[in-house]
Design brief:
By secondary structure, the chain is α/β, with parallel strands linked by helices. It has helices at 13-24, 37-44, 59-65, 80-90, 107-117, 132-138, 148-161, 179-208, 213-223, 231-241, 264-275, 280-293, 295-305, 317-350, 356-362, 372-383, 394-417, 422-434, 441-452, and strands spanning 6-9, 29-32, 53-55, 71-74, 98-101, 123-130, 141-145, 164-165, 168-169, 171-175. It has 3 domains: 6-177, 3-Layer(aba) Sandwich (Rossmann fold), CATH 3.40.50.720; 185-434, N-(1-d-carboxylethyl)-l-norvaline Dehydrogenase, domain 2; 442-471, 6-Phosphogluconate Dehydrogenase, domain 3 (Single alpha-helices involved in coiled-coils or other helix-helix interfaces, Up-down Bundle). The strands form 2 sheets. An 8-stranded mixed β-sheet has the order 3-2-1-4-5-6-7-10, sandwiched between helices. The chain has a two-stranded antiparallel ribbon with strand order 8-9. Strand 5, helix 5 (107-117) and strand 6 form a beta-alpha-beta unit. The protein binds NADPH dihydro-nicotinamide-adenine-dinucleotide phosphate and ribulose-5-phosphate. NADPH dihydro-nicotinamide-adenine-dinucleotide phosphate binds next to helix 1, helix 4 and strand 6. Homodimer. Pathway: Carbohydrate degradation; pentose phosphate pathway; D-ribulose 5-phosphate from D-glucose 6-phosphate (oxidative stage): step 3/3.
Length: 473
């Protein structure tokens, strides 16, 4: 039988769609899944692509089915299952074969796996994939970490299956070992912030303006045609417009307000903290998901304090909607600036030389956070000025000057009305603190020196100084 060019393990949501995508691009692919019955089911349902699918019922069969040197994509649950698959595969593969972990791995695990595979003769790649089910099937954004030589060996197939932005593939080699998975983690951190800010704006429309889901949907639909044009705004409009077959109500009104999370948002925050890079909007978004999961506690607190006396926002509708649109735009810019700053910090810390213009470019299509704004970001990173922070790129200074007054007004109105907007207000707090030439940490330094003799710097003088605290009353 003709050998396959590539193999894939894990026929779940992502793996099965990625396998079909690979087959559609003309590659013969061998597939295996832990629950072996899914393998034959998968081929049976592959329609006209079935001829290019080689079903394998064991890892040994998979290795036998692929032409050496064998590239094998592992697309299983992140964590221990990946280690188990690698351990099992080591017995079946040979020198020069390429193992590609395409799941949402923690980059520390990826770095460890690189170390563990050193000297094994096997090549390892840690690859972030974004785009969900649809992206995997028709073109995801692909973030590759490993040696440049290993990238060259798989570049052909990965660029072929990736999304294209105006013809440019959204797949790239970003740096050594954990670089690809780190970038995917921060992609997801930004995704959390973006989704949370959208949800906060929805909350203002629902509770502050008493708008129903069906009324809110076209607002997002309209925004999707303007500066907020993005996949997340597009699907928000669709989610809000959908009906529940069981009750006839909007689906969003029957969904429990408890958000799940699989770890990438939390990892983004942990890494930002470790690197000492502020990522307040992402932190707020992760915290908001945790708070959302405390449904029973929230209900008990509502009983204890009484329901939030939400004051209806009374303002001309069109002006308010314009402010909400601009507030979301400003909040998003701050969140992306934070995400890119965390990646720049990691790049310095780990010596990765992460290519920021390339990252912005490969996020323009295929991935969950794809948006028109990412094209502006790609230009900003390419033309200079954004090295320290995206907020300093001339194009973004102009955009933020136009949008931050709206963010300010919306955060203030929401606070007065009693509507929680933790990510939007964190984004605003970050922006205001970042642009304040003289902040208030002089007082913190005074306090630290008072209680711990930590010393402080004086304006315009060299050296460490202490305050006159002993003589202070
Ligand atoms: N869904 C999404 O939108 C995205 C997911 N990802 C990442 O892709 C990876 C796969 O996710 P997804 O396809 O959604 O997950 P699914 O739950 O749909 O599929 C999980 C797959 O992992 C396999 N698996 C689970 N545990 C083990 C194990 N111990 N040993 C071997 N195989 C195992 C399952 O096999 P079995 O059939 O036997 O249970 C199945 O094939 C994850 O890392 C996820 O974070 C990345 C981007 C987007
Ligand atoms: O990687 C993804 C999208 O980019 C996955 O859908 C991931 O599961 C999203 O994270 P979470 O489940 O924590 O919301």
């Amino acid at each position: 039988m003709e050998k396959a060019e590539i193999g894939l393990i894990g026929l779940g949501t992502m793996g099965s769609n990625l396998a079909l995508n690979i087959a559609e691009k003309g590659h013969r692919i061998a597939v295996f899944n832990r629950t072996v019955s899914r393998v034959d089911e998968f081929k049976a349902n592959a329609g006209e692509l079935a001829d290019r699918i080689v079903p394998c019922h064991s890892l040994a069969e998979l290795a036998e089915a692929i032409r050496p040197p064998r590239p094998v994509i592992i697309m299983v649950l992140a964590g221990k299952p990946v280690d188990e698959q690698i351990a099992a595969l080591r017995g079946e593969l040979e020198a020069n074969d390429i193992l590609i972990d395409a799941g949402n791995a923690n980059f520390h695990d990826t770095v460890r796996r690189f170390r563990e595979l050193e000297g094994s003769g096997l090549t390892f790649i840690g690859m972030g994939v974004s785009g969900g089910e649809e992206g995997a099937r028709h073109g995801p954004s692909i973030m590759v970490g490993g040696t440049e030589e290993s990238w060259k060996r798989v570049e052909g197939v990965l660029t072929a299956i990736s999304a294209k932005f105006k013809g440019e593939p959204c797949a790239a080699w970003l740096g050594p070992d954990g670089a690809g998975h780190f970038v995917k983690t921060i992609h997801n951190g930004i995704e959390y912030a973006d989704m949370q800010m959208i949800a906060e704006i929805y909350g203002i429309l629902r509770d502050g303006l008493s708008m129903g889901a069906k009324e809110i949907a076209p607002v997002f639909g309209t925004w999707n045609k303007g500066r907020l044009n993005s996949y997340l705004i597009e699907i928000t409009a669709k989610v809000l417009a959908a009906d529940d077959a069981k009750t006839g109500k909007p689906v969003v009104d029957v969904i429990l307000d408890r958000a799940g999370q699989k770890g990438t948002g939390k990892w983004s925050v942990i890494e930002a903290q470790q690197l000492g890079i502020p990522a307040t909007a992402i932190e707020a978004a992760v915290a908001a998901r945790v708070l959302s999961s405390l449904k029973d506690e929230r209900q008990a607190a509502e009983k204890a304090y009484g329901a939030l006396a939400v004051e209806k926002i009374d303002a001309p509708r069109d002006a308010l909607l314009k402010d909400l649109e601009l507030a979301l735009f400003a909040g998003k810019i701050a969140a992306y600036a934070q995400g890119f700053a965390v990646m720049a910090g990691a790049s310095n810390e780990f010596g990765w030389k992460l290519p920021m213009p390339t990252i912005a470019k490969i996020w323009r299509a295929g991935c969950i956070i794809r948006s028109e704004m990412l094209d502006t970001m790609a230009e900003a990173f390419s033309s200079g000025g954004a090295e320290k922070n995206l907020l300093m790129a001339p194009a973004f200074v102009t955009l933020m000057k136009g949008a931050h007054p709206s963010l300010r007004r919306i955060v203030a109105r929401a606070a007065e009305a009693g509507l929680p907007v933790p990510a939007l207000s964190s984004a605003l707090g970050y922006f205001d603190a970042y642009r304040q030439g003289r902040g208030t940490s002089n007082l913190i330094q005074g306090q630290r020196d008072f209680f711990g003799a930590h010393g402080f710097e004086r304006i315009g003088e060299q050296g460490a100084f202490h305050g006159p605290w002993n003589s202070a009353d």
